[in-house]
Design goal:
Largest sheet of chain B: 2 strands, antiparallel
Oligomer: heterodimer
Subcellular location (chain A): Cell inner membrane; Cell membrane
Keywords (chain A): Cell inner membrane, Cell membrane, Membrane, Transmembrane, Transmembrane helix, Transport
Strand order of the largest sheet of chain B: 1-2
Number of domains of chain A: 1
Membrane topology (chain A): Multi-pass membrane protein
Distance between the termini of chain A: 13 Å
Order of helices and strands of chain B: HHEEHEEHHHHHHHHHHH
Radius of gyration of chain B: 26 Å
Strand content of chain B: under 5%
CATH architecture of the largest domain in chain B: Orthogonal Bundle
Strand content of chain A: under 5%
CATH topology of chain A: MetI-like fold
Number of strands of chain B: 4
CATH topology of the largest domain in chain B: MetI-like fold
Organism (chain A): Mesorhizobium amorphae CCNWGS0123
Protein name (chain A): Spermidine/putrescine transport system permease protein PotC
């Protein structure tokens, strides 16, 4: 990439400082939060020394275990279901001739992204209350899995669709010319090429489910505490750095999954 | 010869049509799940908003427009007349103001940042994108908590200022409008930077060069070339900040402490302590209407752009 442009012309005065300011604004608060998780003192804001004590007390806490277990059950199930149906939908909506219902179908898939979370939350709450009242149906933790699956679908869908659109269609055509059945062409050509998109989509679906607070808080029944709800319960009590430790664990999980999704996408770009 | 060819063509077209039909069905499971658990609930709250509240939460199946009336009026206990009570309206206007200020400041900070990122060499650019992507996907509750720790009375800022002897009493920042505004900015800044970046990244910098060759100053290049070309990204970014900021729930819940409400808390309250589900549904639908108006302007603007382009 021999590029004749000089950086000089493109630069705008002051933009560098604003960019660095933004980066600091975004990171300083979470870094401080993380640093205080290593505080040996029992105050969230007064530093006494470095230690891992609060991680120990967090990890030994029964409530934390239950919340972590619930979170993993919900996020894993929602991720698996949403990734499978999003993959099918992405294929069904890119490998077809445009038809009249397509824009509408696209809108439905993306609906959870446009509706403010609080509206989805109260609507889902009303829905489950209604089916519990009218038909006596209560799926327990399944309620949360279903609610999470709905908003995970568009997040899983986006990278998979992008990958399908970038894909070289001549490969599929070549397979068809060589007498591969549509199923064979899909299984041996499309699917292997699609795997990075699926993984990236699954990672995003997992993060949004893992981090969800608003919808979970309104829909969750008794005993269905997830990690974000556990943190919320802790905020309302006198706080110790244990909350910093748990928050740090949550942040690290997000960072891990974002990085995985990001690296997969980068490899695709190369 | 020509007959066999056209027969083959017909056969192929039929086969393609069959695959196309089969492929359409693949979208069905996702559409059914979102249809039942995403769209149907929205229809249910439309119905609920026209029902009466049950005393302990939930609804009674009796038609009533009270929820919408209660949005603006309160029934007087003594003479049963409707009194204009703008309490909810004020919360809506305040949320709107918060969302607008958040969008404007995010744009002012986000545009230079995104532009700076887009003009870095590719390797550096990837790092910047990752660094902005991480807060984008990080837990909003935890990030809000991080702001809370900093601005509390015994938080870092007050401790530092008192330690330096600049103030004697801590400045109250938590549970104020300032706290909410700060929290919204902090929450949604990455939502502005990323769409702006993806738009600026595709910018043809030869145009910047051309403008420069024609003796345009840097400011002129910025205002007459770069900003007009990145307008779709600017609109997308503003929408991605404005909509969640308008319906924000976590930020005012934690940083407003239930004193300074936004629409999000107001709605949740009706389903909790308020025990007035129809009112909550009506309030949610009014928020949805505001969001749809914003989306309408977005679609109109972007489809106009495509036609002109």
């Amino acid at each position: 990439m021999a590029d004749p442009r000089t950086i000089d012309i493109k630069d705008q005065p002051g933009f560098r400082s604003i960019a660095i300011l933004c980066l600091c604004v975004l990171y300083v608060p979470i870094l401080i939060l993380m640093i205080f998780s290593f505080n040996t003192g029992s105050l969230v804001t007064h530093w006494e020394g470095v230690g891992f004590g609060w991680y120990g007390s967090a990890l030994l806490n029964e409530e934390f275990h239950r919340a972590a277990q619930n979170t993993l059950i919900i996020s894993t199930s929602a991720t698996i279901i949403s990734t499978i149906v999003a993959t099918l939908a992405a294929i069904g909506m890119t490998r077809v001739k445009p038809w009249r219902g397509l824009p509408a179908a696209f809108m439905v898939i993306n609906l959870p992204l446009v509706v403010p979370e609080i509206i989805t939350a109260v609507a889902t709450l009303s829905f489950f209350a209604l089916i519990a009242g009218a038909f006596g149906l209560n799926f327990g933790i399944g309620n949360l899995i279903l609610a999470h699956t709905v908003f995970c679908i568009p997040f899983a869908y986006m990278p998979i669709r992008a990958r399908l659109e970038d894909m070289d269609l001549t490969l599929e055509a070549a397979a068809a010319d060589l007498y591969a059945t549509p199923w064979h062409a899909f299984r041996r050509i499309t699917l292997p090429l699609l795997v990075p998109g699926i993984m990236s989509g699954a990672a995003l679906a997992f993060i949004v489910s893992f981090d969800d607070f608003t919808i979970t808080q309104l829909v969750a029944g008794p005993g269905q505490t997830t990690l974000p709800l556990y943190i919320w319960n802790q905020i309302r009590r006198p706080m110790t750095p244990e909350i910093n430790a748990i928050s740090t664990i949550l942040l690290l999980v997000s960072i891990l999954f974002v990085s995985v999704s990001f690296l997969i996408a980068r490899r695709r770009a190369k | 010869m020509s007959i066999t060819l056209s027969k083959a063509a017909i056969f192929e077209a039929q086969a393609e049509k069959a695959t196309s039909w089969r492929n359409r069905l693949l979208a069905l499971p996702a559409l059914v799940i979102i249809g039942i658990f995403g769209v149907l609930p929205l229809l249910i709250i439309c119905v609920y908003s026209f029902l009466q509240a049950a005393p302990y939460g939930g609804v009674q199946w009796k038609f009533s427009t009270d929820a919408y009336l209660n949005f603006l009026f309160q029934r007087d206990i003594f003479d049963d007349t409707l009194q204009f009570t703008p309490d909810f309206l004020i919360i809506y206007l305040r949320s709107f103001l918060f969302a607008v200020v958040t969008t404007v400041i995010c744009l002012l900070l986000g545009f230079p940042t995104a532009y700076f990122m887009a003009t870095r060499p590719p390797a550096q650019r990837n790092w910047w994108v990752l660094l902005i992507t991480i807060p984008f996907w990080s837990n909003l509750l935890v990030r809000t908590l991080a702001i809370m720790f900093i601005i509390r009375d015994e938080g870092l800022i007050n401790n530092a200022l008192m330690g330096l002897g600049l103030i004697e009493k801590p400045i109250t920042m938590l549970y104020t409008n300032f706290a909410i505004q700060l929290g919204l900015l902090y929450s949604f800044l990455p939502f502005m930077i990323l769409p702006l970046y993806s738009s600026l990244e595709k910018l043809d910098f030869r145009l910047v060069e051309a403008a420069n060759d024609l003796y345009a100053t840097r400011r002129q290049v910025l205002w007459r070339v770069i900003i007009p070309l990145s307008l779709p990204g600017i609109i997308a970014g503003c929408l991605l900040v404005f909509i969640p900021a308008l319906g924000a729930y976590v930020t005012p819940l934690i940083l407003g402490g239930g004193i300074h409400l936004m629409i999000g808390d107001l709605i949740a309250q009706q389903f909790g302590s308020g025990r007035n589900w129809p009112l909550g549904c009506a309030q949610a639908l009014i928020l949805m209407a505001a969001v749809l108006v914003a989306l309408y302007f977005y679609v109109r603007n972007t489809s106009g752009k495509i036609q002109h382009g």
